[in-house]
Write a structure and sequence with these properties.
The chain is an alpha/beta fold. It has four helices and nine strands. A six-stranded mixed sheet has the order 4-3-2-5-6-7. A three-stranded antiparallel sheet has the order 1-9-8. The longest helix has 19 residues.
Length: 184
């Protein structure tokens, strides 16, 4: 369901700003330093998970000043359902993963079931290591078994978030601040 434009315009005015643009940029700087220290000499493939990881990757990748291959992938477990099933690739990795270091960039680690399935896929393809970088790690105890991010920009309370890749009914992925919908 798409919001009417007036509702999309006012949702941000009625939201709580949890992290400003400056805080997001500082978090991305910290993530870039940590990723560089870990994989700069490993010839990594960096995958952006679409659509949420697009904004994060767009700001993070230029901060990684070492040789890397970059690509994207798009996977879902929902297929228009409210609960997840088997992993469905909209765009699967096409590069050879065997023996490679893989860094997966996404906007948020919430429950992480789809992200866990993507990590498992890369490992089954023979990746040397699979590392996860998320701007936001939502703090709760509902995470998929075994999933954790290796690089985290911000830890955020368990609320309905939007901004910096995360959307509210399809809108506001493009803002660089992190917001929470009031009451959610």
């Amino acid at each position: 369901m798409t919001l009417e434009l007036p509702a999309a315009l006012t949702i941000i005015d009625n939201a709580d700003c949890l992290h400003s643009e400056a805080e997001v940029h500082a978090a991305l700087d910290r993530m870039a330093a940590a990723i560089t220290a870990r994989v700069a000499n490993s010839n990594p493939i960096v995958y952006t998970i679409m659509n949420g990881g697009l904004i994060v990757a767009g700001h993070l990748l230029p901060k990684l000043s070492f040789p890397l291959e970059c690509s994207y992938l798009h996977a879902t477990r929902y297929r228009h359902e409210t609960s997840g099933g088997a992993l469905n690739w909209k765009v699967a990795p096409t590069e050879e993963l065997k023996g490679r270091s893989i860094v997966i960039i996404d906007d948020i680690l919430d429950e992480g079931h789809t992200l866990a399935a993507v990590v498992d896929f890369c490992k089954r393809q023979g990746a040397k290591e699979v590392l996860v970088a998320v701007l936001v790690d939502k703090q709760h105890d509902r995470k998929a078994p075994g999933i954790a991010a290796d690089f985290v920009g911000l830890k955020v309370e368990d609320r309905f978030l939007f901004g910096c890749g995360m959307d509210y009914q399809g809108y506001w992925r493009n803002t660089l601040a992190i917001y929470a919908v009031k009451g959610l």
